[in-house]
């Protein structure tokens, strides 16, 4: 099984607190790097190549799930897009809705490819349909990212298509191997409609079939080989991170790219839209080794992976990785669990994650090991300007009082760690609208003649339970647990429900806990500027909008400040990474564990200390 979902009733860790291969590799590269990105939530610059890799993989997988016996070369890219999903974004097993491929009529056999050359021609045609759509979607996502960097004009669609075709040729070699083997022992089971629990995505229902619609008789046909060798991969239309393999104890998760298994052997493939040069290629090796461990553990430690491969599509090279032994995987599991206890069970302090980067590793084209470069990892780090291992230091703001230029009074600065953006209160439901219309209801609650609107941002709590009672009604007494209070532009109080908040029915005698009067609208914060960002767009009303923001860090924590461009004042454009800044009169907000600050026209943003620069 390439997917192993969590068991909500047994999962006390939750999806936001698991380890992953990327986290393990980040910590191994430098504990402070991990701390900045996983604890302080700094986002590295989002360059186009990060989005191109996703577009290439998505296009390749969309092509793989299609069949030349169902779709002509020029069929629409979204022909198999209407996949029924459950509430977690996983392809549904219970729906009575027909799946897209089950609704299609099989093409006449004379329209099927008769040889690998014709099959390749059809598949390239499908890639040419999918790739522009995926690249356009990724460009839009990149353009709207607050940390976008680089220039999208650097993206070469022809090179992207070349990488897709390289992946196709790797897969066609597997198709040919299947033909040469006569399909192997599992062919007859496939022909009679047997479907594994997690079948390779092909647009068909997960249920077994009476007979596969494309099954033939006698020796295996080319169409059968295409269908039968199809690897498992995450359905491109499934929810994000909905099809992970999760450790039975829930502290580690991973998502395989491709899993070949038609011949009874398990081959996990990691797809990389790159040439495999540089230090990061070492991370890919460690990632696959961790995936081998994850497969072994989620199969009761009785089934091991047979082979591991990295497909460097930019280099047109397959790199084979040695599969770890049972003893190695057992030791790996033990070490990773200890790492989870050290890093995720309780959040470590910054001092416990020192800036101790390991030496860079050398890899040439195709992930071939070579002599390591004679330079420090810090020279390539996105955080070298603020890290004491680079150009920064540990002298960070820590609350206190301050007087700003032009102000007669002093402002008390609250350390970021001391900010409390959440409240837990008991109130009565004053009104509920839209509860039976298949959408999130509009709820207003009342407490001692004070009213607040409830803003439901998610459907489920991080533990998998519903964020609000399905039968919530006017007059109910409810507990609003860990909601985020904010004031909207009208001055009305809103209580936000995110993955860390929920609404629960309580008895009428339940004490009120906190009061709506406890809400504090404005705070003063200070920190070192980590980076600035801007976002622009066009609203539904056709008007352009422009927002600006900054990530700051003090000695206790980090937070994102954001507001409309006109509300920031001139000092925003003058501030640079490493400067110490103050923001007074900001509103508090939050999402999951990240604290945010809302900048308004009443906020004053001021540089109070500049770092020395050459």
Layout: helices, strands, pairs:
Layout lengths: L20 H9 L1 H9 L8 H17 L51 H28 L13 H24 L6 H5 L30 H7 L16 E2 L6 E2 L3 E3 L6 E6 L7 H19 L8 E6 L4 E5 L4 H20 L16 E3 L3 E3 L29 E3 L8 E3 L9 E11 L8 E6 L2 E7 L20 E11 L5 E5 L4 E4 L17 E16 L5 E10 L4 E7 L6 H4 L5 E12 L2 E6 L4 E6 L5
Parallel strand pairs: 4-5, 13-15, 19-21
Antiparallel strand pairs: 1-2, 3-4, 5-6, 7-8, 9-10, 11-12, 11-14, 12-13, 14-15, 14-16, 17-18, 17-20, 18-19, 20-21, 20-22
Q: What would the average pLDDT be, to the nearest integer?
A: 93
Helical residue percent band: 10-25%
Which word captures the global form? Answer: globular
How much beta, percentage-wise?
A: 15-25%
Any low-confidence stretches, pLDDT <50, length ≥5?
A: none
Radius of gyration, taken over Cα atoms and rounded to an integer in Å: 27 Å
**First-to-last CA distance:** 56 Å
Question: How many domain units?
Answer: 4
Strand order of the largest sheet: 11-12-13-15-14
Largest sheet: 5 strands, mixed, barrel
Class from helix and strand fractions? alpha+beta
User: What is the total tally of β strands?
Assistant: 22
Please work out how many helical segments DSSP would assign: 10
Explain this structure to me?
This protein has 614 residues and is an alpha+beta fold. It folds into 4 domains: 45-243; 246-386, no CATH class; 400-417 and 521-609, Nucleic acid-binding proteins (OB fold (Dihydrolipoamide Acetyltransferase, E2P), Beta Barrel); 420-518, OB fold (Dihydrolipoamide Acetyltransferase, E2P) (Beta Barrel). It is built from 10 helices and 22 strands. The chain has helices spanning 21-29, 31-39, 48-64, 116-143, 157-180, 187-191, 222-228, 280-298, 326-345, 571-574, and strands at residues 245-246, 253-254, 258-260, 267-272, 307-312, 317-321, 362-364, 368-370, 400-402, 411-413, 423-433, 442-447, 450-456, 477-487, 493-497, 502-505, 523-538, 544-553, 558-564, 580-591, 594-599, 604-609. Helix 4 packs antiparallel against helix 5 (157-180). The mean pLDDT is 93.
